[in-house]
Amino acid sequence: MNKSQGQRDHQARGPDSHRPAPAAGPALTRGLERAGVGQALIERDGTVRHLCQTAQALLGPHIKPDTNILFRMPHDERQLCLDWLAADNQQTLHTLQLTTPDDEHFAVTLLPPESDQPALALIQEQPAEGHGRLALARKVANDGLWDWDVTHDTLEVSQRWRELLRLPDGHPIQHSRDWFSLIASSDLFQFQADLTLAFSSDVPRFMRELRMRTPEGETRWMRVDAVVIRDNTGDVTRVAGSISDIQDRKQAEHALERVAANDPLTGLASRTLFLEHVEKALERARRLNHYSFAVILLDIDHFKIVNDSLGPGSGDQLLIQIAQRLKPVLRGIDTLARLGGDEFAILLDGLDHPSSASDVARRIQTEINNTIDLDGHAITLTTSTGFVTSLHHYDKAEEMIRDADTALNQAKANGKAQAVEFKGDMHTEAYTRLVLEKELRKAVDNNNLSLAYQPIISLSDQQVVGFEALLRWNCPEHGWIPPDKFIPIAEETGLIQPIGAWVLTEACAQLKRWNNAGLPRHKPVRMNVNVSRRQLDNPAFPDTVRQIIETHAIDPDTLELEVTESVIMGQQERILDALKNLRGLGIKLAMDDFGTGYSSLSCLHEYPFDVLKIDRSFTMVMQEKRQISAVIQAIVSLAHTLDIEVVAEGIETDGQLAALQALECDLGQGFYVARPMTHEQAFDFLRNFNGFESLKASA
């Protein structure tokens, strides 16, 4: 497009073309300015609408707002380059970034020219939220830039690129082979496949995480971002981009994956890993006619009494001893897992005959039903066991565990201290579920649900930051029903939609009352509300949230919606869109129960989370297990790098509190601070809480 044509288009648009376009936030502006990067807002006809001070210095004093500059638009619009006249010669400054905030403007970020940097730097779309904007400023300062002239096979890299790979100045990096020789062979194939796909299709850019070798022989993880540049005929002429060191993130990620696969207390397999092993056993059973296996579930009879009388620490030691007693009963091919609490699971793999499962179950009874010395106390244990074999031809691991759990419940109903095999007529649990579903519908219709509130405290200034709203149900027929019993029913039946709307309405109404109570506070109280996948899958959910916020006239910034880590796994694009829509309302988003699944640490910068909540299973053992403390430290460090606030759940001792404060964790909640309470009790707590020392004084 030439200048005169651009001016005619501009005039045709009329006076509305001068309306302001979205500008970068102050955090981005400050970060980019410190990195020597300028920002400009330029209309498509070349008219400059905005320049920051750095951009003004880069472009020269003669380029001012409302002046027109020449620019050229290559094959890919994202490869916009700016030309301007400086002194007596024409110079070219390429964009580091280009976005189109509306149909009439380009938001351009300008990279200062340096002799050791390639002519064209990485071009990437600007993230919509503040976390991504800050990441951009860090990218300019910390990433190594590269520019590959494909036509002549010449490669230019920045000094930072060399520093990241510990390359001395004399080390030759002039051609693609010089770079590719540094890539681990197992990753080079994938990287070359990326290039082949980009060259042979219309893929404009790609990203690959790979390992590269330094001259000292060290292998480090790098993230390579690349943009493909084509000429007017569509042929690839150049590939440019950046590399960033992700070694620390990868190490923390791998550590977290190892923790997620194992129970942090006993070191046994976790529920997630156990389910994977059962799924594999089911696959083998479908392929092999004579293959059989079994699943055993067991828990310790009267464990709660031991835990309450001797304390959680003694209860943990008991579980560790139980795990040690179970191991000799099993073979090397079997899987022993702790599912949670005092519930253990066993996969008996490759049985000679399904009846062998009952023999193992009896040996477990004999091994466990003995006296254990626990801190000088002689504890006589018994265990209830339920098991099921593959003869029932299951399709999913969850179904098999469900029926083993049904047999376990039958063993308890029979008087405990026994092993029961699942039979097809044991589906009384299904009947119980139908009864609970019927009662839950009545509770929704009759408004018989209630909320409890658990305080969230700043670990630095020891102030009450807010409360988490927790759903409770006191059934007239069955008494208090645990949330993990009725919330899954609500999810499966769709009742979670009206229940979720009621919870959000009630919590926001209570939040408004607290913040209007006239308490002497520097900041308003925040309210945390849990949301489920079913709610996020509902396209109308963001509008429901908006209406509730407007109805109660609360500040959106005081509402924080919590999403569990498992919710964002699978169907990620749809969940991401829902989260962005919610974030657009001005509310905060928190990832709950972080560390309990297999999600990557890298997902933190892909989702618009403001807060990360570390699962209580980490907090409870962080003092006994140094590796858990190290994982928490890595999580806190990475979250802070991304400007994400960190909350530790499940604080139950002053030692855990002190350890979390030392790791600079931001917020905390748990029984050590306060148990969930009524709204009247919560208001009294809000008014009277005077720091953690007051908790010790009242203990």
Automatic annotation (TrEMBL):
<dbReference type="InterPro" id="IPR052155">
    <property type="entry name" value="Biofilm_reg_signaling"/>
</dbReference>
<feature type="compositionally biased region" description="Basic and acidic residues">
    <location>
        <begin position="1"/>
        <end position="19"/>
    </location>
</feature>
<dbReference type="Pfam" id="PF00990">
    <property type="entry name" value="GGDEF"/>
</dbReference>
<feature type="domain" description="GGDEF">
    <location>
        <begin position="291"/>
        <end position="424"/>
    </location>
</feature>
<dbReference type="InterPro" id="IPR000014">
    <property type="entry name" value="PAS"/>
</dbReference>
<dbReference type="InterPro" id="IPR043128">
    <property type="entry name" value="Rev_trsase/Diguanyl_cyclase"/>
</dbReference>
<protein>
    <submittedName>
        <fullName>Phytochrome-like protein cph2</fullName>
    </submittedName>
</protein>
<dbReference type="InterPro" id="IPR035965">
    <property type="entry name" value="PAS-like_dom_sf"/>
</dbReference>
<feature type="domain" description="PAC">
    <location>
        <begin position="206"/>
        <end position="258"/>
    </location>
</feature>
<dbReference type="Pfam" id="PF00563">
    <property type="entry name" value="EAL"/>
</dbReference>
<dbReference type="InterPro" id="IPR001633">
    <property type="entry name" value="EAL_dom"/>
</dbReference>
<dbReference type="InterPro" id="IPR000160">
    <property type="entry name" value="GGDEF_dom"/>
</dbReference>
<dbReference type="InterPro" id="IPR029787">
    <property type="entry name" value="Nucleotide_cyclase"/>
</dbReference>
<dbReference type="InterPro" id="IPR035919">
    <property type="entry name" value="EAL_sf"/>
</dbReference>
<feature type="region of interest" description="Disordered">
    <location>
        <begin position="1"/>
        <end position="26"/>
    </location>
</feature>
<dbReference type="InterPro" id="IPR000700">
    <property type="entry name" value="PAS-assoc_C"/>
</dbReference>
<dbReference type="InterPro" id="IPR013655">
    <property type="entry name" value="PAS_fold_3"/>
</dbReference>
<dbReference type="InterPro" id="IPR001610">
    <property type="entry name" value="PAC"/>
</dbReference>
<feature type="domain" description="EAL">
    <location>
        <begin position="433"/>
        <end position="690"/>
    </location>
</feature>
<dbReference type="Pfam" id="PF08447">
    <property type="entry name" value="PAS_3"/>
</dbReference>
